[in-house]
Amino acid sequence: xxxxxESGGGLVQPGESLGLSCAVSGLTLKNYxxxxxxxxxxxxxxxxxxxxGNGDTTNYADSVKGRFTISRDNPKSxxxxxxxxxxxxxxxxxxxxxxxxxxxxGQGTQVTVSL
Length: 115
What we know:
About 0% of the residues lie in helices and about 55% in strands. The protein contains no helices and eleven strands. It has strands spanning about 5, 10, 20-25, 35-40, 45-50, 60, 70-75, 80-85, 90-100, 100-105, 110-115. Strands 2, 4, 5, 6, 9, 10 and 11 form a seven-stranded mixed β-sheet that branches. It has a four-stranded antiparallel β-sheet with strand order 1-3-8-7, with no helix packed on it.
C-alpha cells in the first residue's frame, strides 16, 4: 500500500522559515517525479515545486522561486520542501504528490503565515 505522509507544517510569522517533509512508503521513490502542491479553500490546487527522479531537475511556481527549495533523499524515501521568507499568501495546506505509474497524494500539512 502506497502512503505519503507530510509533516512539518505549523504557524509562523512573515519572513520566517519552515521545512516540510514527505515520507513515502510502498513504492520505489527514484522512479517517481515528486511534487509539492498547495491548496486554499475555494481555490484550485497549485503546483509549488517539482523534482525529477534523480533530483537534478527542479521546477518552481513563479510565486515561490528564490524562496522555496525542493529536494529528495531516495534511499530515505523522503522528499523535502524548504520554505524561506514566508509570506501570508503562502498560507495553505501543502500536499505531496508522486507520479509515474499512477498518481498518489498525501493528506497534507497546514502552513499558516500570520502575525
